[in-house]
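All the exercises in this workshop are built on plain-text protein records. Sequence and backbone structure share a record, each on its own labelled line. The question running through the whole workshop is how a given chain folds. The record below serves as our worked example for the rest of this section.
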Amino acid sequence: MFYHLLYPLAAEFPGFNVFRYITFRTGAATLTALFIAFLVGPILIRFLARLRVGQPIREIGPDHQAKEGTPTMGGLLILLSLLVSVLLWSNLDNPFVWTVIGVTVAYGILGFIDDYAKVRHSSSAGISGRTKLFWQTTIAFLVAVAIYNDPNFDAILAVPFFKNFTPHLGWFYIPVATFIIVATSNAVNLTDGLDGLAIGPVMIAAGTFLLLSYAAGHTGIADYLAIKSVPGAGQLAIFCGALIGGGLGFLWFNASPAQLFMGDVGSLALGGALGTIAVLIRQEFLLAVVGGVFVMETLSVIVQVASFKLTGKRVFLMAPIHHHFEKLGWPEQKIVVRFWIISIILGLLALSSLKLR
């Protein structure tokens, strides 16, 4: 909005030329989202507490009963600050912006319905897994088809560390993109099990993709790094910046002991947004590197279920793997901080891979 309202005034008032620059608007979007989260957070917590929108705690697993009743649906705080900031600072003529907003809102609505079902029935079950997966897949499939049918799109897959290996997938890219978006959404959802655990890696991934989006949208930088140039992708840096700002504001209230839980309304939406950004800027494999913590959490569940069904034995004391470490006696804060450290290392590795080819 500010871009459309104020940048045209640069012809008469040169100072407004600053609104032309993505770097300026990215920083402004980050601070705006942070300010909104700080402002709205206490109000939202009191509102959810009055409605008794408390988080149901599973009876099995680590003892988290002290957290029973802590307000959930805190992802609303992130989405509100994120979306308002993006609408204020982005170039709204850019289709990439609306694509990511659409996925974020759609997955957020699905997560809200799931959270509401949990609260209403005082159960951690929510809506059925099949129903959730059906709608996740449907939304992601429609987005993948739209991206594939863009006249400027080519279905070439970039592989980290291999400069000349760029397989062309053709129409098969549609199920691949669908899988990436759905898998990332669910992976973030699985990671959201401890105070601050999910939002840390989400912000680190957003920071990494902020740089990647800016590079992909800048022809000179893209050519220098030998990555796919995607005209218009630079606007996604503003979305990533707003996500970092909203995430930091949420973490202020989610840090242990949490005053507010993210809920599926946040985890499904943020995971879907990251997956969509990775597809749009053609860095699908790097998402698996940057989001290595999410991959690890998901694989731990798959391995646990497969092992139990095939052998009747469990590989981990409990899955996802952060609960395994809890069972080993690790303090919650130590698990969270160590997972953040791993995410930072993986983010640096992903950025380093741009020249290690």
Summary: Residues 21-283 form one domain.
